């Protein structure tokens, strides 16, 4: 293990851990791929298991023994007191470790879904917590892939990764290059495309699931506004989860879990 003790928050070797905004991280490496941050031993381990490449690890002294053995021998592991981690990053690193990981190249949509039966598509979901929770449900319930629209928050943003418990590395995903054209592409690849939406013509989730074919893609819309009209114009059917008690809908992360469970392959 290449363990290096640091005691100066201005140490230039810690540059990757300063200014941890999504935009800054994306621009940190050239050409188009940037960095993302994996936080905590479990998440770092899942990132490495997915063959993602670390540039370095920043870890508090008391977490060193649990984190350092996970890391490839050639990767620098910077060990410091917890106060220095907070000074460098600007926040309290609750899980004691951050790994600066190089973003992997995302697959083309057709390659991503080649063997998939159940796909979740996210449009305009801007809350990183919701994105991470949806990925965790996708991993736990068994969705094969996730497609995110250009307007969707970054699944590799630190908060998304943390909330997902690292399952963003486990579930194959990509970002759609064309929107809502990606929905037409999915239909052309043999997917029945349903959009979760509160429309007058929406069918109950149970009915949609009963008629579901071999390949189904379910589109989830933004918090509050739901799916855009342009997206709804490119789905086969609008789908609704029947509700009670005067409640019209669930949080998008909860709704995705319910829908994925109902649509799981039998």
Any overview of this molecule?
There is one protein chain. With 266 residues, the protein is α/β, with parallel strands linked by helices. The chain folds into two domains: 101 residues, 2-Layer Sandwich (60s Ribosomal Protein L30, Chain: A); 154 residues, Alpha/beta knot. Helix content is 30%, strand content 21%. The chain has eleven helices and twelve strands. A seven-stranded parallel beta sheet has the order 8-7-6-11-9-12-10. It has a five-stranded mixed beta sheet with strand order 1-4-3-5-2. Helix 3 links the parallel strand 3 and strand 4. The longest helix has 14 residues. 46% of the residues are buried. The mean pLDDT is 92.
CATH class of the largest domain: Alpha Beta
Mean pLDDT over all positions:
92
According to CATH, the fold-level topology of the largest domain is Alpha/beta knot
Span from first to last CA? 46 Å
Strand order of the largest sheet: 8-7-6-11-9-12-10
Helix content: 25-40%
Computed over alpha carbons, the radius of gyration is 20 Å
Q: Total helix count? A: 11
Compose a concise summary of this entry.
With 266 residues, this protein is an alpha/beta fold. It has helices spanning 22-27, 41-49, 64-67, 82-89, 109-112, 128-141, 158-163, 181-188, 205-210, 229-232, 252-262; strands at 2-5, 35-39, 54-60, 76-80, 97-102, 118-122, 145-148, 173-175, 192-196, 203-204, 216-220, 237-240.
């Amino acid at each position: 293990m290449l363990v290096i003790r640091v005691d100066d928050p201005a140490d230039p070797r810690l540059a990757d851990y300063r200014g941890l905004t999504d935009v800054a991280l994306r621009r940190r490496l050239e050409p188009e791929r940037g960095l993302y941050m994996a936080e905590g031993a479990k998440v770092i381990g899942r990132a490495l298991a997915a063959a993602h490449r670390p540039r370095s690890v920043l870890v508090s002294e008391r977490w060193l023994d649990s984190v350092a053995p996970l890391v490839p021998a050639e990767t620098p592991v910077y060990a410091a007191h917890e106060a220095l981690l907070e000074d460098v990053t600007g926040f309290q690193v609750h899980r004691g470790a951050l790994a600066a990981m190089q973003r992997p190249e995302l697959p083309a949509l057709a390659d991503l879904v080649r063997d998939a039966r159940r796909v979740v598509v996210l449009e305009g979901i801007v809350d990183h917590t919701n994105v991470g929770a949806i990925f965790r449900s996708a991993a736990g319930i068994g969705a094969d892939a996730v497609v995110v629209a250009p307007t969707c928050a970054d699944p590799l943003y630190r908060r998304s990764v943390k909330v997902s418990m690292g399952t963003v590395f486990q579930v194959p995903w990509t970002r759609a290059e064309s929107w809502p054209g990606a929905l037409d592409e999915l239909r052309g690849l043999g997917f029945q495309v349903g959009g979760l939406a509160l429309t007058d013509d929406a069918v109950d989730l149970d009915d949609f699931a009963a008629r579901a074919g071999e390949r189904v893609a379910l589109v989830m819309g933004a918090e509050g506004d739901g799916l855009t009209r342009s997206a709804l114009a490119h789905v086969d059917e609008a789908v609704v989860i029947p509700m009670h008690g005067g409640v019209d809908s669930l949080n998008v992360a909860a709704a995705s879990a319910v829908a994925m469970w109902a649509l799981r392959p039998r």
